[in-house]
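seq as requested:
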Amino acid sequence: MTSAISVRFIGSGDAFGSGGRFQTCILLDGNTERTLIDCGASSLVALKASGINPSTIGTILITHLHGDHFGGIPFFVLDAQFAKRTDPLIIAGPPHIRTRVREAMEVFFPKSSEVQQVFPIEFIELPAELTIPIRNCRVTGFPVLHFSGAAAYALRVDFAGRIITYSGDTEWTDMLLKASANADLFICEAYFFEKKMKFHLDYQTLAKRWAELACKRIVLTHMSNDMLDRLEEVNAEVAYDGLKIDL
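struct tokens:
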């Protein structure tokens, strides 16, 4: 049985804040639990600016280990510590996520990774193309083409009976067809309008494969200034900070 959920773009920007947007941070909001897909370095600020209490978020799912997608976790964890959070937090992502988060915490705040948290944190390394349950979600990581020193995934998330797929960062790969098949919402990177760049997807390439995508709705995100400057030429729905989609 499905129930109404919302997908909210807390951050829809690229790594460099193009268009004044916050880095990637997508909130899945159900009746009883909230889940984040990606938590870029600016995400704690973005959540608070949006009136979202970070303590209400139980799970953070990460597509890949670049700072604009996971770099907000050290701030999220330390803020939770100071706020005396007690509810458990699950952080799930590609292999090595526990190590990379701890390394980031040590770079930003030395010795912070050694502090005993007042709330439980569980790290889960997502295997490729294997669906696993995480709280009220079922999550599948599909390998994509993006270098981050570890595997990079498109994430397919069954959240309260709705399927949300996020491409993460990637150049075109047919794995996106599999990840987004029959999804209620496919959130897809469109970094440039037509320029080809290794490890990233441009709108024109995506448009050529549009008919092959068997999803119900597509929203473009993670756009550079090049893409933002040409939105009048885009025949697709595009994300912006604060966009809320009810499913």
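Residues 191 and 224 are 5 Å apart (CA to CA).
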